[in-house]
Amino acid sequence: MPALVHPGQTTRGQVFGCFIEGYIPSDTLSSTVCFDNVVLCGIQSLPKKSLMTEIALSAISCLFLGKATQNTSILSHGLSLYNSAIRQMSSMLQRGAYTDELFYVTFIFQELNVVYAPNGMDPWGTHVAGMNTLLSHYRAKAKKDPIVDIICRYEQKAKIVLATTEANFSESEYKYLMEPTNGDPLLEIFQIAVLLKDLKCELDSVNHHDLDACEDLLRKCYETQEKLTNLSTDGSLARDAPELQSYFTEDTCIPSSDPLFGPAYHFSSLENAMLFILIWAHLAILQPLTYRAYSLVYLRTGSTGEIWFESRFKDMKFEVPEAYADRIARALPFCFRDSTKMACARYSMFGLCIASFAYFETGNRAKHDWCRGVLDYMAGQGFEIAGYLSERSSYLWQSRWEAPSPLTLLSLEQSSSPFVDSDSLGFSETADSHVDDGYLDYSEYRTLIRAP
């Protein structure tokens, strides 16, 4: 592979091919869960692409390969390509030129900010917001264009859910996320994620003296748990229920789950593994919310039963989420095989963040460190955002369970990846990041897409 990417179409195609070889296994290109892989290859295969689209594809290829091979020349060239394309995007936004190319490149840059994340989560969140701005112009085209359809139906819904820690969706976003699922389990999980955010907001704002309102919240928690449980026992997922599984014994790219969590689960497909990880992750998120609802109903103001309540129900707050986290850990070895490479990166990162937070809450250092080890492995394979999440996880652990020196905390707080509070679980837009050598120059674009 050449040290720098010549603008010729043949060379750009070769570089993208090297990127795909390391990023997307060929046997996952028809996956019904790993849609980002399908979309990237679909854009690359378009017979006519604008120069901006070509540059964007080369940028993500160079940044991934530069990180994975530690080749600073390729990495630097990828940055130059990104900054060139983002300036073109800003110019198009200023002119109101909403073209297919703008839509495609915005998607590419969402993926790019997973493999290259020196500014933390902020660039990724910015491009998610940019895509949301464009969605209203493209939903009508979704059924006519397969690439646009996948982005509108699956990809952007996943990103909105992952990028938003509170239920602060706009009316159009909420309507979009709650479109009919037609029985699609992935879309149903996205909708349950929205309901969980709603539940958290309601729990934060409910009048504790209003027993009817508190009981209604507890009922909603029960209903949400039933929805998640039903997903794991219906249709094709039923045959992959853990109690019916044989165990996975092949060599994997990550540490074994056996010593800490139990033998790794085996699944009938990569899609089912990812769906179970998402179901267990959301069940782990739900349990502390249910605990809060229980406490509002059974611990009225002035109650003398707090000690009894804590001893009776504390497992709902800590032990049950940790049990779901253990299931996530036992599912991950199946996802990280030589044949799958990094196809499961995005949902695996989400599951790992939820699991590590459960272990953070219970103070289980060994399990917490195992999750960080998997994130560090992913970072070493070219997914820099996983390293950022690992760093955040370490920072939160030290802040709560250890007494690091002031210099250590100061170093962590001043790192290029700013941190947010533990409630975010790693999926939140961070503070503004400056632009410097080696940073993504997206400041003008960010201003434009956030303008009313």
Automatic annotation (TrEMBL):
<protein>
    <submittedName>
        <fullName>Uncharacterized protein</fullName>
    </submittedName>
</protein>
<dbReference type="InterPro" id="IPR053178">
    <property type="entry name" value="Osmoadaptation_assoc"/>
</dbReference>
